[in-house]
Amino acid sequence: MFATTSELISIISILGTVAFAFSAVLAASEKHSDILTVVVLGIVTAVGGGTTRDVLLGVPVFWSEELSYIWIAIASSIFGFVCVSFLKKHWVNTINLYVDAVAIAMFSIQGTQKAWSLGFGLPIGPIILGVITAVGGGVIRDVLIQRPTLLLSKELYAIPVTIGCILYSATLVYVPQLSDISAVIAIALVLYIRYLAIRKKVQVPKWASL
Amino acid sequence: MFATTSELISIISILGTVAFAFSAVLAASEKHSDILTVVVLGIVTAVGGGTTRDVLLGVPVFWSEELSYIWIAIASSIFGFVCVSFLKKHWVNTINLYVDAVAIAMFSIQGTQKAWSLGFGLPIGPIILGVITAVGGGVIRDVLIQRPTLLLSKELYAIPVTIGCILYSATLVYVPQLSDISAVIAIALVLYIRYLAIRKKVQVPKWASL
Amino acid sequence: MFATTSELISIISILGTVAFAFSAVLAASEKHSDILTVVVLGIVTAVGGGTTRDVLLGVPVFWSEELSYIWIAIASSIFGFVCVSFLKKHWVNTINLYVDAVAIAMFSIQGTQKAWSLGFGLPIGPIILGVITAVGGGVIRDVLIQRPTLLLSKELYAIPVTIGCILYSATLVYVPQLSDISAVIAIALVLYIRYLAIRKKVQVPKWASL
């Protein structure tokens, strides 16, 4: 009846990669990009964060050993290119935002975990690499397409990810026996704040901005 | 009478590095850059793509073991800085575009070949790294100088490179005994599409853009 | 009475990291960034150059083994966020510019030295990596915040750093017994040119610009 944890992670990874690629298609459509640029941006958004993490860790980039991420990003980008008006429908975009939320929550936890397991700059290195894993691809996408990067937006996007990574990294380093429950709480927290941002339009509070 | 293949490759590498640096000088002249920025952009354009490829492959960056690329990029940038009005002459610019076309064709094949020989994410890894080798330096140049990157242009530039890399990578992986002839065809194809773009002003077709 | 050289280097490293983070706060304040973005930009500015250097060298990124740089960058960014009007005072900003000048001088020498000790592309590799160490973080900051990068400014910033790195690298490679005195001269030279730029508003001369 229920999927195992590893099956669940695989499903979220696939859906998350699709959501990342779709976000790139929407960004590319603002600039009337061609099909190759859409695919390039789809790949960059989907794997750019994890690639940056792996380069900083000094380990082989993950997709060189697991090409499915690239294939999914390419297929999603091409689908998105052909069906861009479908992607722009309000309900489709909303679903995509929620899938993206689940994905950034999970990818940030995975990135934190990978850095921690390699003993990379504990306790803060895993936080930094967790955040990079989740939002790095989106930042590179925005730089390549020359629109204001998500770092400059008032949307609650990188902030919930960072909170989740801080919580999870602290647990891994100081009370590792609680890491599973901490991962669940961190993901739930990211999802809840993203829900507030998407559904209730909650933004970064004024006192937290310059 | 005829140069050997390896001599031919050396000559094209040198001329291509010069052409890449000259393209950086022209980009820098739009922003009235100083001499150091011209040289920095010349180096970045000339070796940025191959450097990104080598970082992703996890191998030493190529120019740390073969500094001639850097020296040529510096010398060309300084020459271009002094003689910028010469570079802007229509016939000089046209020659530069054709030399650039030969260079991106050859560098993309070399990048594909290097990734393939290291078994990096076959069959799609070599395509991605081949494209990055050829156009990555130009993209970084555009980001640093804050003009729309070549990915956002309607010019047929990255598209022919990608087609060539797909053809060559597919041959290497599936029918390696044909790789030499495939390399020649891939380069000829890139050159032909670049010729159409430069001479006939053929652009990315409307149906292939959002 | 006098600090040892290694104590002096530690003090300058700390103050320089603070100055880099403060420059990021000032840049972020132009865009009304939120606290997380301020911290991200503070970290990127403080360690981005050295991180790029280490990735190109193929060695572990320095801050994964010496987290104090990250902690100082975070603390300085948060302090700067809270006290941004203090940072914008003319005399505070002037002090920050001078501390920044000392820091880029020293970091460029350290970066040159690290590349040279690894035999990276002598004699020009150390120059390139020295410059990247000192100004790379600022360039990434400017790209992420989408303002014209310091490479496009008329300010004498990257140029004195480059002159210092050329002098120091040449000494290391050709007359290593003079490397200590050369480091001092290189740092003094960078400081003097930065002093002319900050105090006397000396800019890149016209003949050195396109």
Structure at a glance:
The first copy, chain A, has 210 residues and is an all-alpha fold.
Can you give keywords for this protein?
homotrimer, 210 residues, 8 helices
Element-level helix/strand string of chain A: HHHHHHHH
Mean pLDDT across the residues of chain A is 94
Q: Domains counted in the coordinates of chain A: how many?
A: 1
Overall structural class of chain A, as computed from helix and strand content, comes to mainly alpha
Sheet having the most strands of chain A? none
Helix content of chain A: over 70%
Spatial gap, N to C terminus of chain A: 50 Å
The number of helical elements of chain A comes to 8
- Flag low-confidence runs of chain A: none
Apparent shape of chain A: globular
- Largest interface by residue count? A-B, 32 and 24 residues
**How many strand segments of chain A?**
0
Report Rg of chain A: 17 Å
State which percent range the strand residues of chain A make up. Answer: under 5%
- Quaternary state of the chains: homotrimer
